[in-house]
Amino acid sequence: MPQLFPMNWNILFLIILLILTTTLIIMYFTFFQKVKKTQLSFNSFEKNWKW
């Protein structure tokens, strides 16, 4: 990576990774809560068919 401004790229990369992981966790939890409400019938269907 070209050093355009004096900053440690490892720290920058870690900050980006932290932001990505936190957003993914938040999105996963919100999506999971929405899916949990809508897919109760699908879970029973899955149990009946025994994939």
Automatic annotation (TrEMBL):
What name does the UniProt record give this protein? ATP synthase subunit 8
Give the species: Ornithodoros rostratus (Soft tick)
**What gene does this protein come from?**
ATP8
Q: Which parts pass through the membrane? A: 12-32
UniProt keyword Transmembrane, yes or no: yes
Per UniProt, which keywords does this protein have?
Membrane, Mitochondrion, Transmembrane, Transmembrane helix
